[in-house]
Sequence to fold (354 residues):
Amino acid sequence: MESWPDTLPIDSNQNKYDSLVHAPQSGIANAGFPHYADGQVSGSPKKLMARIIAVANQKGGVGKTTTAINLAASLAAAKLNTLLVDCDPQSNSTSGLGLAKDPDRNSTYKVLVGECDGAGALQATALEYLRLLPAHKNLIGVNFELVDAENREFRLRDALTPLREQFNFIVIDCPPALDLLTLNSLVAADTVLIPMQAEYFALEGVSELLDTIERIRAGLNPALEIEGVVLTMFDERTNLAQQVTAELKRFFGEKLFATSIPRNVRLAEAPSHGKPVLLYDERSRGAESYLQLAKEIIAKHMPDFQAFAAAAGVDGASSQPSEGNEQEEKQVVNAPRWRRWRDRNKLVTIDLKG
Ligand code: ATP
Ligand code: MG
Fold:
């Protein structure tokens, strides 16, 4: 196999998140967190009560999985106990965190069909504060097998409720469809985080999702709120992006996150290494922007929480994106060797013109 081009960052030994990395474990990780109490919000009661955020948009390829993985990892980098739930049969969150395909492992499918409970399906990840409820492609079967089942929309909610006390945040990666899996996610969730690309018809694309959220609010989950809309693969240099952003700002108001996620090749590369971007290239603009997004969410819901800046160093100059990154990124994307590697490894949908 061809080795990586020189321009790509090979895993650094000096990642500042190394202190939060533990030796990869295999098998079930349903034991408590070693530094569980560190994740407490100061002044809050001792008991945790996770906020459950579903990352949803029925449109494919808008950055749901990239957002779910990297938001969850950024929250974990702030020493907040975080669970990432892979609720998509494509299982991209699972492979993106380095887990091999395994139909026998306890997974979202087994949880939803009642073969195991949530706690019995949790996997450790490279980040000490991040757990994963993995998926396998057999999860697609839920859409058929549970069609006539009792409580079919409430399966995920019932499985996650007992886990709320173990985590500060639970992030659910949804499939690109308004199917029973997304429905289960939206019924289980407190809020929906909607990743969107700044395209001309962005609002039209999201109207179906907003209708669905309204219907769920009217019936299955009256407390469901919108966490926010985050612009992904954003290129602020284009007029179109500016116009669409202004329109989305008018429509969503303060629900549009101040942080937008730039198009950044490190974000696209990291999953092929089975890592969130902050363990792959912590100084990339992609890593920086997801840390900022996590920071925005923490500031909104945990105004007293101080550990993030100290743990993740996202305040001030300490985490400026690496200089010349944009230039470097262009080199990587234009390199013929990189293209060949990408094509062979099916690392898809990087817009070379972007
Ligand atoms: P699906 O609907 O199939 O589940 P998705 O909404 O989860 O897709 P992703 O898988 O996160 O979308 O992203 C689609 C593709 O775009 C992936 O190849 C991913 O690596 C790439 N990508 C996502 N965000 C970015 C970004 N900010 N910069 C560069 N590439 C990105
Ligand atoms: Mg996805």
